[in-house]
Write a structure and sequence with these properties.
Blueprint lengths: L2 E5 L5 E5 L4 H8 L1 H6 L2 E5 L17 E3 L9 E6 L4 H22 L4 E2 L4 E2 L2 E7 L6 H16 L6 E5 H10 L3 H10 L4 E7 L2 E4 L13 E11 L8 E10 L2 H17 L1 H7 L3 E3 L8 E3 L1 H20 L3 E2 L5 E3 H7 L1 H4 L8 E3 L2 E5 L4 H9 L10 E10 L15 E11 L4 H18 L5 E6 L13 H17 L5 E3 L9 E7 L5 E10 L2 H4 L4 E2 L5 E2 L2 E10 H12 L12 E5 L5 H13 L4 E3 L6 H10 L4 E5 L1 H6 L1 E6 L3 E7 H13 L5
Parallel strand pairs: 1-5, 16-20, 22-23, 29-30, 29-31
Antiparallel strand pairs: 1-2, 3-4, 3-5, 6-8, 7-8, 8-13, 9-10, 10-11, 12-13, 14-15, 17-19, 18-19, 20-21, 21-28, 22-24, 24-25, 25-28, 26-27, 31-32, 32-33
Helix pairs in contact: 3-4, 5-6, 8-16, 13-14
The structure holds zinc ion (2 copies).
One zinc ion (ZN) binds next to loops.
Length: 661
């Protein structure tokens, strides 16, 4: 009997007979692990494993628990603690969906059914559209099948037999897939009870644990995503290990809908996009404009405090400049077309960098001048396809809080640190306290794909990593994810409902300084090329505003609210006192609106609530008599009577401290 050696994650080695399965090994460790296991991951001891398909991100190969092991391996049993297991779980749930659909509608033709973020889909060709009632029926059938604990077993068929099988059942798309994808004599299938599907797996052992799922919607999709091909119906589903996780996800979706800035923008009269003017172009209405001004003013003050110089550059510049920078080549697809003026082509700017470079180059710089930090709230225009435009998040014209730092190699660590510190200050100021950081490095096996020398890359990446370590900021290293011109750090913030948004980028550039021949005179009297860093903290003001709206669900903290206080007089008789209150608050710099309409008090309060105004002051003869107001907060409700003078003080304090409570 042949023995193989299986190394477990704790380093222990099991000597087992050839043909032992991961399920056997899990059972040998503990019945609990055997029960919790979904799938296994094999790692080779030396060199890639053949006949295991493609490895996942960490180099491991996902395999069925019941696959017989034939060679020495490192093995990990995956449970609901592993995201790779979730992926396999969702894939198995997709097969379950197809099994249910085939039972209910035996004539549909099957497309593909992969796992996706938060769930899975399967696509079907069927003449009649799937209705919400159909989805209900299918979901019920899936639960029925799942409860039968159907085994997901791997079966092999010779290729001609597999093709014959699909031809007979008229599964044209599956025929096509088998023809295209299978290069070996045997074709791999998986069973789900009576249903059998062409698939290389792996899968979880059976349907029993597929319980927390929900069919979400149906969307049209061309076969293989190619226009002109048959149009299939994709049934999308959410799926999680547990009902609790599914419920949380569904709740987040509801919340996201409620917070959607495209809905809140018009409702709160913050901004609009006008078809008459063109898609992807933002009109900031007075209230949105007010908030933008607060953001920009805060930012400009902070830039000056932190040693940046504020500059302004033209929105349109000669196309030749964009040839020098290279954008006319590698960025052409994202630019508006050139405009001809006096026989020369001009280009609407998609980036601010070349403008800042021209300012740097306008005089000879010495090492004593460095670092030069040029900042601009720079408006740029990019051609985004109409299909990808999305409210304030993907637009065609936007303003970056952009800056370019030109420095010497010795200065990069302190510059990077200052950028990251600034980014955190920005986010904290606007009420965010959860972040994720990613460091994107080059693919060191292919230096030929990158601008700059290996020592540049090494120095810059080390500077980025050292800075993160020194600031005790955990980060994820993304090998091979850097742009061709330099490594970068991206900071993503996590919003009120747990979504992450890419915001800050601190990006080295080894390309532009060379293309523009940038120089400084060193202390050795010789000319050197400076290092260049692009950095944006908010990213774009438009996008940041969209994120802010969604984070706060439109209920901005006091310091950002365009109208901070609504005064609601109970009747005409209270108007004089209401005006006195209005005047007093205004004199203390509080943004106040007096609702002088001839409406009943509950209507006034309801409207102020809908506008998400932080405070409402109810004033009537009683309050006038006592010199007080009846205070209401949009979230906390009635706060009782307050002397006017005290109120002024507490509002000022809350606003000045930029409290987010
Ligand atoms: Zn599959
Ligand atoms: Zn730039």
């Amino acid at each position: 009997m042949d023995t193989i050696h299986i190394t477990l994650p704790d380093g222990s080695v099991k000597d087992v007979p050839k043909g032992t399965t991961a399920a056997d090994i899990a059972r040998g460790i503990s019945p609990r692990l055997a029960d919790a296991a979904f799938v296994a991951k094999a790692y080779s001891n030396n060199g890639p494993l053949t006949n295991f398909g493609e490895p996942v991100e960490d180099g491991g190969y996902l395999i069925d628990l019941r696959r017989p092991l034939e060679q020495d391996l490192k093995l990990k049993i995956l449970t609901d603690k592993d995201s790779d297991a979730l992926f396999v779980f969702r894939h198995s749930a997709a097969h379950l969906l197809a099994a249910a659909v085939m039972e209910l509608y035996p004539n549909v033709k099957l497309g593909i059914g992969p796992p996706v973020e938060n769930g899975f889909f399967y696509e079907f060709l069927r003449e009649e559209p799937f209705t919400p009632e159909d989805l209900g029926k299918i979901e019920k059938k899936m639960h029925e099948l799942a409860a039968q604990d159907l085994q997901n077993e791997r079966k092999y068929m010779p290729k001609p037999e597999a093709l014959e099988f699909y031809k007979k059942s008229n599964q044209i798309f599956k025929c096509e897939l088998v023809e295209e994808k299978v290069t070996e004599p045997l074709v791999s299938f998986y069973t789900t009870g009576k249903f059998i599907d062409f698939c290389r797996g792996p899968h979880i052992p059976s349907t029993r644990r597929i319980q927390a799922f929900k069919l979400m919607n149906v969307a049209g999709a061309y076969w293989k995503g190619q226009e002109g091909n048959a149009q299939l119906q994709r049934i999308y589903a959410a799926a999680f290990f547990t009902q609790k996780e599914l419920d949380e996800y569904l709740h987040r979706l509801e919340e996201a809908k409620r917070r959607d800035h495209r809905k809140l923008g018009p409702e709160l009269d913050l901004f609009s996009i006008q078809e008459e003017a063109g898609p992807g172009l933002i009109f900031w209405h007075p209230k949105g404009g007010f908030i933008r001004n607060l953001i920009e003013t805060w930012l400009r003050d902070e830039l000056i405090k932190r040693g940046y110089d504020l500059v302004y550059t033209p929105h349109i510049m000669r196309l030749d400049l964009w040839k020098t920078s290279g954008h006319a080549d590698f960025y052409r697809e994202n630019m508006f077309g050139p405009v001809e003026v006096e026989k020369a082509d001009y280009q609407l700017k998609p980036m601010n960098c070349p403008g800042h470079i021209l300012i740097y180059k306008s005089k000879l710089r010495s090492y004593r001048d460095l670092p030069v930090r040029l900042a601009e709230l720079g408006t740029v225009y990019r051609y985004e396809r109409s299909g990808v435009l999305h409210g304030l998040l993907r637009v065609r014209g936007f303003t970056q809080d952009d800056a370019h730092i030109f420095c010497m190699p010795l200065q990069i660590e302190s510059e990077v640190e200052a950028c990251v510190d600034f980014a955190y200050a920005v986010m904290k100021n606007f009420g965010f306290d959860k972040f994720e950081v990613e460091l994107s490095d080059w693919d060191e096996k292919h230096p030929e794909n990158y601008a700059g020398k290996p020592e540049d890359w090494h120095r810059a990446t080390t500077a980025l990593a050292n800075t993160m370590d020194r600031m005790k900021i955990p980060y994820k290293k993304m090998a091979g994810e850097a742009a061709f011109y330099g490594p970068k750090i991206d900071i993503k913030l996590i919003d009120a409902i747990g979504r992450s948004w890419q915001l800050t980028t601190v990006q080295f550039d080894f390309n532009l300084p060379a293309r523009f021949g940038l120089e400084y005179v060193g202390d050795d009297g010789a000319r050197h090329q400076p290092l260049m860093v692009h950095r944006a903290l908010l990213g774009s003001v438009e996008r940041f505003f969209g994120i802010l709206i969604e984070h706060y669900a439109g209920a901005f903290p006091l310091w950002l609210a365009p109208v901070q206080v609504e005064i609601c007089p109970v009747s005409e008789k209270a108007m004089d006192y209401a005006k006195h209150v209005e005047e007093t608050l205004k004199n203390h710099g509080i943004r106040v609106h007096l609702d002088g309409r001839n409406e009943k008090l509950p209507a006034k309060i309801r409207d102020a609530q809908l506008e998400k105004i932080p405070y409402m002051l109810v004033v009537g003869p009683k309050e006038a008599e006592a010199g007080t107001v009846s205070l209401r907060h949009r979230g906390k409700g009635d706060l009782g009577p307050k002397p006017l003078a005290d109120l002024v003080e507490s509002l000022r304090a809350e606003s000045d401290s930029r409290s987010i409570g």
